[in-house]
Specification:
281 residues; 2 domains; two-stranded antiparallel sheet; 4 helices; 5peptide_repeat
Length: 281
């Protein structure tokens, strides 16, 4: 009981330092409070949902809203909060960060940690952002490389020029997202929802798009070379000038897709659906 009471006191103090009454406090004080919440979540995993909720609310209230004037990179305390959210440990606890409609341009969410495990082997821990709510968030030029974003909701998000190299986006929702010039090299986008997304000049080389929904996507001049499009749905997709050399299009659906000027070198279209598709001459 005494230990729980101490934990509650620590939590209350940290929240007070982040709350409205401390708005005039220093960034250093807020950063200290964020780290205090991280330690609480580590010491008492059952408190992780509460700490994630408080830190997420801090980001939403201290970062500009999407569409408002926004700095090229987040303020130091906001970036600290994002890093703490991203480097959480994997737990079977419902702790889902909610960063919807938040402007996080230039944010660094690549928090890879490499350490020696109990057996002496090197262990890699990437940013843990599974199931995170990022609907309509502005992540222009953000670094999300190697991040675990499985099942994350990025519907309508702005990811122009963002880095998602090696990111894990299986079953993620990227519908209507702006992915112009975004890098998905080696990313896992299997069964992701990308319907009506803008992928102009996006780099998707060697990415896994197995079973992905790319219906209506605008991927003009996008680079898909050596990507895995097995079973992907690209109905009515715009792929003008796109590079699809050496892609795997087995059972992929390109019905009514526009492939004028696309590079299809070394692509076996035998088991590909091309009904009413516009093919390169």
């Amino acid at each position: 009981m005494a230990q729980q009471g101490q934990l509650n006191d620590r939590f209350i103090r940290a929240v007070e330092q982040l709350g409205p009454d401390s708005a005039g406090g220093s960034a250093e004080r807020r950063i200290g409070a964020i780290y205090a919440l991280e330690h609480i979540a580590h010491d008492a995993p059952v408190e992780q949902p509460a700490t994630v909720e408080v830190i997420s609310a801090f980001v939403r209230s201290h970062a500009p809203r999407t569409g408002s004037p926004c700095p090229a990179i987040p303020a130091t305390d906001v970036q600290t909060a994002l890093s703490v959210l991203a480097r959480r440990r994997t737990l079977e606890i419902d702790a889902r960060p909610d960063l919807n409609n938040t402007c996080l341009k230039g944010a660094n969410l690549n928090t890879r940690q490499v350490f020696v495990g109990r057996g002496g082997d090197q262990v890699r821990r990437d940013a843990l952002l599974e199931d995170t709510i990022l609907t309509n968030a502005d992540l222009t030029n953000a670094n999300l490389s190697d991040a675990n974003l499985k099942r994350a909701n990025l519907n309508g998000a702005i990811l122009t020029g963002a880095y998602l190299v090696g990111a894990k986006l299986g079953h993620a929702n990227l519908g209507r997202a702006d992915l112009t010039d975004t890098s998905f090299l080696f990313a896992d986008l299997s069964y992701a929802h990308l319907a009506d997304a803008t992928m102009v000049r996006a780099g998707v080389a060697k990415a896994d798009l197995t079973g992905a929904n790319l219906t209506g996507v605008n991927a003009d001049q996008a680079i898909f070379n050596e990507a895995n499009l097995t079973g992907a749905d690209l109905t009515a997709a715009i792929l003008t000038g796109a590079v699809l050399a050496r892609t795997n299009t087995t059972r992929a659906n390109f019905t009514k897709a526009d492939l004028i000027g696309a590079d299809l070198r070394s692509v076996d279209l035998t088991d590909t659906i091309l009904t009413e598709a516009k093919l390169p001459q």
